[in-house]
Structures are given as structure tokens and as C-alpha cells.
């Protein structure tokens, strides 16, 4: 059955969940002016990788990338699938640890970290245990509830902006080598890879996903520009989570709630849980393909346990940032190698099929 | 059989998860919290004095409780207050932070930065300066103001007692002024009045978190309308008439010639006539109004230029003309040189129910 719009919605909300936390801070730290250049550049690379990946997937036909690499040979599988599994694993760790830390900073100051992280992992694990189709159904439900909330607060976040802070528009190209800019690719690399795993279970069309990706562009831009226009560059660069702070400055007198940040945060967290469940599920698929003897169910329980243990071992925010940075090499490898290899392997097998 | 068993376990877990819905850890119920509405801060001999105004409900109504404590940091002082109370102090709903003038002149940078850092205090909290010692001021508030708990806050709230000649500045704006190259803020100055009122004395010019000068309420009105806060409703008193400003709009052009910034600003105010004295014509009112506003504006501009504090945010208009490295020194090297061509055009939109003779 065609579930294009479910996939597109999932793609959209998973990225929304990723954008608003670390991304604005990273981009603001990467350059002093002309922030739209790094954003658009990152987005263009993302779009290029995505369309290449999708092209490869559709050349390959109605199957997932694990089958593609397995067919191409064991060597390919190890070369591409192993780093991918490691990357998903690392992404789970960073997302769980980061969002737990944000939760403690913003609202649950007296709740111990282990409890926050435990709930963060329990719920996605449950989603994943129920299978990929139910992850998507949950995605639709959460999307219907929370996307309106996000859009509402997002549109109100323009309240305190001063457009003149947009200048100077042109910056230097030095951001290309800034560590924080390279880290910002976290947003672009993590979210689209799940598309390669869902195929026989959830069928979708290419066009919808591309449209969802394009619809994300304003969110990428304004997640960075709202803090910039509210505070100015020199002030915004002093914040860890600029977008969240600028949300805190909004006052809506007719709304009965004082601190609207909490609502936005909870919606984003629910999106991140979907991201987690997708990543857990994909990791499970890869590990299962490597060691078929292990049952998927046990894998789906043991991977989160492993993630949880590693998360507990990370003591502080600086260590998370360090982990983020170590991840960078892997991230770029994944972002370049997976779409490219999918594309080439798929077109090769297509040619063979045509010939035979 | 196995299936039913699994399902039973699943349901048990689902019910168990409902226990988590309580959500918060070490939660203190609302009756065990004190929620101060106003906090006063002063600094003397490297020690902060913190005064909290806490509304407490009793059978008779609301009582205001004033608590004071000294500490090496603001947090320490608040903690000391919390220790001495039967309930714990929670700054979550703080609405106004009142700073003693002397402390504001020394510089608020550290406190404002820590207010921003901690999530306890909302960045939306209003900052005001108190032009007398905090103790007598709070005593006065406790004694003479109707105890509704939020009284002092209501003076500043836009949908309550706020007046257009008051500046309204929140913590995040002060924080922005500390770091921004081209933007400073004005903070209202208040003082205890008589008969249960609070006198508003004007606004303090804050440069990089430090109070450097003061402007009058009339100048503040202009400052507000320049910064796009509605100046609606304000009654402008002149020799011959008083008018109400209905709307003000602004047009501007900026350029830089050989390092000197030039700014052309035209403010159009639309007014309605409220009161007249003797025989006046609309022409004379227009002239008078333009003259008065011009005078006030140039006075304010002069203050801002001599103090090198850009409360009007004039540097904002030059952000696209000056490179960032130069923007850093906007306050020192450009603002004093700024040439401003300022024009005010007033339009009498209507003269109320009666004709202007």
C-alpha cells in the first residue's frame, strides 16, 4: 500500500525534532555574519544527498538497502552497513543524552538524569518493538497533535524580532572549517537514512519526500534567524540553545500559559522519540542481517540497554560536545558514502537486470 | 496461551507507566511554595541585599510579606530567605526586579547574566530602578498599597497600569544591551509617592548594563514611539491645548559619508484634540506640537550622544553600511559624530465631538 504522505510527514517531523536544539547554536557559532550562507549550503548538500539516495533506492526497486549491499557482496556490507549501524547507535546516544540534558536545564531541574533518559528510551523501544508500520502510524498521530502546536509557537516567535539585525548579509567563507559548522550537519545526516530501510514494509513515492525536504527550508533558516533577529549576533552567540531562549522572550497576554517553551519542547521531544525509534529499528535490522541467529525482539531490547549504559557513563555537557565532535568524521562518511554507494550499486544491478 | 500471558504483562506494564504520569521528581506542592512577585536587589560593600515581596493569602485577603536578606551572591541571599521560611522560595513567577539606583550605576552585568543563565527567573521579567533605599520603599509598598499581591507589577503591565511615557524593559533586553554593539535600553525609575501611589521619575539610560544618565517621562514617550511601542493614548500638554497621539509612523534614510553617519528621520504623528485653552487654530497646534517634540527629541539625542549610549538603536540603521569590525566601535566612534536630520510632521486626524473654533 502506498504510504507516501506518512513517510513524508515522518521525514518532516523527525527533522523538526532535530533542528531546534543544537543546530541554531552551531550555526551562530560558526560565523559572525551572513548566516544564511552556511544554512543554505548545508541544506543544498542535504538535498543532493537525499535525491541521490532516493534515486538509488528507486533504481533498486522495492527492497531495502541491506538486501542491496548483501547482494553486492560481503565486503560492501561491512564497508557501508557497519559504519551505518555504529552511526545510528551514536546518534541514539547523543540524542538521548542531549535531550535529557535539555529537559533538566529547562524544566525538570530536580529529576535525576537516569529517570529522564529511561523514559526517553522506554517509549521509543516500545514503538520499535511494535514494528515499522506502527512507528509510522504513531508518527501520524503525534504529527497531527504536535505540528499545529509547533507552527503556532513558531509563528509567534517572530514577536520580538528586529529585521535590521539581518545585516551584514555577506560573511566570510571561514565557517567551512569551523568545528561547530561541521557539527551542525548532525541535522542533515541523521534524518534521511531511515528511508532506505522501510521499503518493502512501507512503500512510498519519491516526490513526496523531496517536497517535505523543501518544506523544511524555512524552519532551518528561521531556527537560526529568530534568535539572531531577536538578540543580534553578539548576544545570540552567548547562548547554548538560542532558539529556546528566544522563545522564552515571547509574551502572549491572552494565552493562559506563561512559559510556552515547555509546550514546544515537549512536541519536539515527542518527535525525537520517533527519530529514536526509527534509528533503533534500523540498527536492529542491520545487526540482524549481520548475525541472523539473534532474534529481532531481543536485539530491540538489548540495543537500548546498551545506549542507556553509555548515556549513563557520560558525565557532563562538555563530554557530549566532544562525542558530537568525534562523530563528525563518521557523519560525513555516512552522508557521502551511503547515498553514493546506493546510487552506484543500484544502477549497476539495474543494468545487469536489463542485460540478462 | 503464551499470547494471553504476553498481553497480560503488556497491560500490566502499561498501567505501571501511568504511575510515571505524576511526572516531577521531588515535587513541592503549591502550598509549600512561596512565589515572590517582586524582587529588590541592591549592592553595598560587595554584598547583595535581596528583598522579596511575597503575597500570602489569608482568611482576610492577601497579605504582603516583605523579607530581606544579605548574601555574597543573589542566590545565596534568596537561599537564606528560603531557609528561614516554612515554605521554599520559588522565583518562577517573579514579575518585577527592582534595582537600587546605586547598584544600577555600578553596573548590572553580572546579575543580569546570571538571571539569564538560570531558568528560575523568566527572561520576561521587568526591570525597574528604585530611586531610594529599598527598605523604605518596600515598607511603603507594604503599608500603603492595596494588598492585591501584584500591585507593583500592575504599574508596568501593558494591559493594566502601564502608561506610554513609561519605558518597559525586560531582562532579556538588558542582556541584549550588554552584548549588542548597536543597542542600549532605557529602564523606568520609580520612587514611593504619597497616598499609595508610586511616582514615575523617567527612565535610566543603560549602556552595557550600567546606568549612565536619565531621561524624563516626556522623552521616554518619544523614545517609545521611536522604538515602535505604541504611543497611543498619551495626552501631550502644551500651552494651548492637549492632544492625544493616535498613531505614529516613521520613515528613515541613512548614509555614511567619509566616516560620518547621516540619518534622516521623519516621524508622522496623528493626533486628536482633547482639550483646548482659549482660541486656537489647528495650525497653531500643529506648529506647537512639532516644536515641542523637536526640542525633546534633540535633547534626548544629545544625551545619548554625549553618553555614547544608543538607546534609540540608531546603530541599527547603519548595520548594512558599516562592516562588522567597525560596528563593534559604533558607540564610541560613530554615534557622537552622527548628524541627524530629524523632522516631525503632525496631522490632526480629528478634533473630537466639537468643532475647533
Automatic annotation (TrEMBL), chain B:
Domain Spore germination GerAC-like C-terminal: 202-352
Gene Ontology CC, one term: membrane
UniProt KW keywords: Germination, Lipoprotein, Membrane, Palmitate, Signal
Domain of life from the UniProt record: Bacteria
UniProt keyword Membrane present: yes
Membrane topology per record: Lipid-anchor
Protein's UniProt keywords contain ATP-binding: no
Protein name: Ger(X)C family spore germination protein
Lineage of source species: Bacteria, Bacillati, Bacillota, Bacilli, Bacillales
